[in-house]
Hints:
The chain is mainly alpha-helical and 181 residues long. It has eight helices and two strands; from the N terminus they run H-H-H-H-H-E-H-H-E-H. Helix 5 (89-101) packs across helix 8 (168-177).
Amino acid sequence: MNAATECESAAAATPIRRRSMMIVTSEAYNKLSERTKAELLSAVFGSEGPGQRPLGEEFGFSAKQWEDVARLSPGQVERLIDEATSLYEGTRMALQLFAEHGPILHSTFIKNHCLDPNGNKYWPDGLDKFQGGTTRRVRSPDVTGDKHAMLLTWPEWKNGEGYYGISPETHRSLRIYFNLD
């Protein structure tokens, strides 16, 4: 067996590991829509790197609390909002507040800024319905299809008040949806 035949035999016996690679020049990247840029960055950098402090640590959030929080792409946010036939107007307002001021908001800020046309709070007694409704919607097959996914996370609350957080990816996608970037 000569050297060339040995190499061919070794190559045939060695499984080929394929890696996907995409090269995007800065010129090409700058031509992409904001939605495409966000989806690309989310696909490549999906979560915080090792050794990073958890988002909102100063408000009592731990890394474990972010494990099931959905990282929604712009397309998923669009389906969450536009294709929900029964999306409560207060929920839409709260999502816009997260887009404008998030990714972490205090519950009183949400309650005080989500008002109906008569100036009444949508959730005067608490945000349980907002929390439950967004969780059901995010878990639906047309958004994530993940039975464990949540839109929101929160640390321990005192007296029914505290902070809500959404993922940075979802925050960015909401900003795109509401044309804030």
